[in-house]
Design a protein that fits this description.
It is a single chain. The protein is α/β, with parallel strands linked by helices. It has a single domain, classed as 4-Layer Sandwich (Metallo-beta-lactamase, Chain A). Helix content is about 25%, strand content about 25%. The protein has a seven-stranded mixed sheet with strand order 6-5-4-3-2-1-14. A seven-stranded mixed sheet has the order 7-8-9-10-11-12-13, with helices on one face. A hairpin with a 2-residue loop joins strand 7 and strand 8. The chain is globular.
Length: about 260
């Protein structure tokens, strides 16, 4: 299998999700012959079936929740069912913050028995899935327990910087990434009580990319202000300003890691 990232959905925040202006499905990641699903929001199972060729959830090796908000976790139970053949094949791993199991739990108790292993995410945690090292270097600033995820293989390091308020620790902890995928919900803080909205703006995202200095960056998880501003144009402008290749993901976009990073 080719190493790749399939963006099943690129919707961010509640209104783009509710109106389905973009799909709110998760992100399918294939690394070193392992299939991982990150943040299966509403419609993930349907989007897998509608892909051409279809993505078979029974081939998943792991499901990862960065946090328990609906736009990231709504389809986690049905995807566990699909990964485990309705529970008849005890297989696969679930990576999840403790709060998603105990504090306002989103993973139903009966489906927890279907997976082979459950790994609890925490700051500084590290796990191995075959040749893929999965780590959560720090807890993000968000209303619920939230972690960005770093995937390290013998070829490259890929970081998903999920929902968070901006803080300098993000630059430090994701510094050695070859590719960063960043959730950019807001165009700016205008018209909002910025200190009460724990999501990144476009300006903050630019600061992150400049500080981390990856080989490439992908913007995703767009809120309404970003959608209206044409994120592909925002990404192109950012690339011209900072000199780091930057693109905006679209629903169904497939990013070939071997072609783009090797």
């Amino acid at each position: 299998m080719t190493d790749r990232i399939k963006f099943l959905g690129t919707a961010g925040a509640r209104f783009v999700m509710i109106k389905q202006l973009r799909s709110s499905a998760g992100t399918w990641i294939t690394l070193e012959n392992k299939n991982l699903l990150l943040d299966p929001g509403p419609g993930t199972l349907t989007r897998c079936a509608k892909c051409r060729p279809p993505l078979d959830p029974a081939r998943l090796d792991a499901i990862i929740l960065s946090h328990q908000h609906i736009d990231h976790a709504n389809d986690v139970n049905i995807m566990i069912e699909a990964m485990t053949n309705g529970g008849f094949s005890k297989r696969g791993a679930l990576f999840v913050p403790q709060s998603a199991l105990d504090d306002d739990p989103v993973v139903l108790k009966y489906v927890r028995e279907y997976v082979k292993e459950i790994f609890i995410l925490r700051q500084g945690a590290s796990f191995a899935l075959g040749k893929v090292k999965i780590s959560t270097p720090l807890r993000h600033i968000h209303p619920v327990e939230t972690y960005g995820v770093v995937f390290k293989t013998p070829k490259y390091t890929i970081s998903f910087i999920v929902d968070s308020r901006f803080f300098e620790g993000l630059i430090e902890k994701y510094k050695k990434s070859d590719l960063i995928v960043i959730n950019v919900v807001r165009l700016d803080g205008k018209g909002e009580k910025s200190l009460e909205v724990d999501h990144l703006t476009l300006e903050q995202t630019e600061k992150l990319i400049k500080g981390i200095a990856p080989r490439q960056a992908i913007l995703t998880h767009f809120g309404m202000t970003m959608i209206r501003s044409k994120p592909w144009e925002m990404a192109a402008d950012m690339e011209r300003k900072i000199g780091i290749k930057t693109i905006a993901a679209s629903d169904g976009m497939e990013f070939d890691l071997e072609k783009e990073l090797l």
